[in-house]
Amino acid sequence: QVQLRESGPGLVKPSQTLSLTCTVSGDSISRGSHYWSWIRQPAGKGLEWIGHIYNTVGHIYTSGSTNYNPALKSRVTISIDTSKNQFSLKMNSVTAADTAVYYCAVLGNWFDPWGQGTLVTVSS
Amino acid sequence: SYVLSQPPSVSVAPGQTARITCGGNNIGSKSVHWYQQRPGQAPVLVVNDDSDRPSGIPERFSGSNSGSTATLTISRVEAGDEADYYCQVWNSISDPVVFGGGTKLTVL
Lengths: 124, 108
Prior knowledge:
The complex is a heterodimer of chains A (124) and B (108). Chain A is built from no helices and eleven strands. By secondary structure, chain A is an all-beta fold.
């Protein structure tokens, strides 16, 4: 059973870069045809898909291909580290509007499972 | 971009049936997935591909999708069903993932 856990700083200063990692257990991130995804949720608001990275060559990653939310694309990078069974999110030039709970999740045709989420606050 | 519209709130008495809608242009041609999010918890998939239930989800949860509206139906509502519910679709290569705005289900 695949499990995901987010990790990273809970506090980021405005204009700096938010960096989060999702550690995958229960399966190898190198196999399969999943889309390894990031989603966020500001307090009291709905879910916002950030982007995902996916395999482009059969079931073996040679390089990940990515899709991003058009509204965030200019500030977001998602990468994958198969040696650590992790994938990561970087978001630059953050503002208070980026304060949210950030989730990683596995996307086949739907999101399942999800990580528990991690709160990131942007504040000086 | 593609928009999914959900009512902000739905209220229902225990034992009754709750219906939560998700509207979108020709949504009937897409596969719709539904998530339940209890306060302070991560979302959980409750219906996938319009009407399939993942393992462990009670039969009280069902879904349908036709025309411009998809519907999540919760029969014999219990207090533990009180949560936010979100619909989600795959849209297009340029705008792959879309979530509805969410519906807060209140059990009276």
